[in-house]
Automatic annotation (TrEMBL):
<dbReference type="InterPro" id="IPR020835">
    <property type="entry name" value="Catalase_sf"/>
</dbReference>
<protein>
    <submittedName>
        <fullName>Catalase</fullName>
    </submittedName>
</protein>
<dbReference type="GO" id="GO:0020037">
    <property type="term" value="F:heme binding"/>
</dbReference>
């Protein structure tokens, strides 16, 4: 039976806008948890922001030649590695890798940054909520104090979403989870570490060991990742509106489109750490040709903007300031 749905198209459900507003109101409250500190609503702890080069491959097929992949090019980038929630790296959590390409020219999906292209990824192939309503149900259940085991019955993809930490942020694979436009079709992204990044070490029993692992590696050696895209080839089996569904790699394999090189460097001066804290990433810092797709991404548009605005505009002293 042929599908009524089309490749690369969005299908917003009714009442999504109200649900996004309610979700945003609830999540903004999570931000002000320490006196004097407005941190990111999610992924508040960074291991570091490192300088990188993002080299677009020169042998790509025409179907991928859109947006920043239009022609071979080397972009300078900042990559921020983070934990999803916890300040203690030993905890079960989500790990994030957010890339910001610099000096990207073209028509943008958002006006908040004019010359950047962000890619946001985490260490699991799928998100745990199907759509905005499902995510709102999760947040309401969490805030009501329901035990997580009970909540998980309605969120089966929570299992495996948070996990034990890798030995280093340079040794794990990351996925966009949600889809993005590329020309006229939808794609998902993934970032695969080079085998040469593997230290052979185990996680260390220290709250900040991921930053230490990044620092120890990069002080002497570079690191490399492959940046991959996966094309949507079936609008039903590979939906745009449900990021809990993994797009089958056997049906549509990931294709390498760029190489990420992180040169040897130090990145933890107080100035660079403060710069890292102040940066803002959002999937909506994007060329229009590569804009985010699907309900979860539509919700991220106002919510990331609000999170960034709050932490940049609010100044409530705690007494712990140093000058
Ligand atoms: C509706 C669903 C989601 C909501 C409401 C949400 C919310 C947020 C917020 C508020 C921030 C902090 C923004 C800032 O202050 O600059 C953030 C950061 C982040 N989110 Fe999400 N998020 C969602 C889905 C996702 C998904 C699907 C991914 C997948 C890969 C993801 C990965 C990240 C990462 C890596 C960061 C850290 C960015 C940085 O390094 O600054 N999020 N998220």
């Amino acid at each position: 039976m042929s599908s009524a749905k089309e490749i690369g198209k969005e299908y917003p459900p009714e009442e999504e806008e109200q649900n996004i507003l309610e979700l945003g109101r609830i999540l903004a409250k999570d931000q002000h948890v320490h006196p004097g500190k407005w941190r990111r609503g999610q992924h508040p702890k960074h291991h570091g922001c490192v300088r990188a080069k993002f080299t677009v491959a020169d042998d790509l097929p025409g179907v991928l030649r859109h947006g920043i992949f239009k022609e071979p090019h080397v972009f300078n980038a900042y990559i921020r590695f983070s934990n999803g929630k916890s300040d203690d790296d030993r905890n079960i959590d989500v790990r994030g890798m957010a890339i910001k390409l610099l000096q990207v020219n073209g028509k943008k999906a958002s006006v908040s940054e004019q010359f950047t292209q962000d890619f946001m990824t985490a260490d699991n192939p799928v998100f745990f909520a199907r759509n905005v309503r499902h995510l709102l149900d999760f947040v309401i259940a969490r805030d009501s104090g329901k035990p997580i085991q009970e909540i998980a019955q309605n969120f089966p993809k929570l299992i495996g979403f948070s996990k034990l930490p890798p030995a280093s942020p340079l040794e794990t694979r990351y996925w966009s989870q949600t889809p993005y436009l590329l020309g006229n079709i939808a794609v998902k992204y993934s970032i695969k570490p080079s085998k040469a990044n593997v230290s052979g070490k185990s996680p260390v029993d220290d709250a900040n060991f991921l930053r230490a692992a990044l620092k120890d590696w990069l002080v002497a050696k570079p690191a490399q990742f492959d940046f991959l895209v996966q094309l949507q080839t079936d609008p039903d089996a590979m939906p745009v509106e449900d990021p809990t569904v993994e797009w089958d790699e056997m049906v549509s394999p990931f294709i390498k489109v760029a190489t990420i090189e992180i040169p040897a460097q130090t990145f933890d001066s107080p100035g660079q750490m403060a710069f890292c804290e102040a940066l803002s990433y959002t999937p909506w810092h994007s060329l229009l040709e590569q804009r985010p797709l699907g309900g979860i991404n539509r919700a991220r548009r106002p919510i990331y903007e609000e999170s960034s605005t709050l932490r940049h505009q609010k100044l409530e002293p705690s007494g712990e300031e140093s000058f």
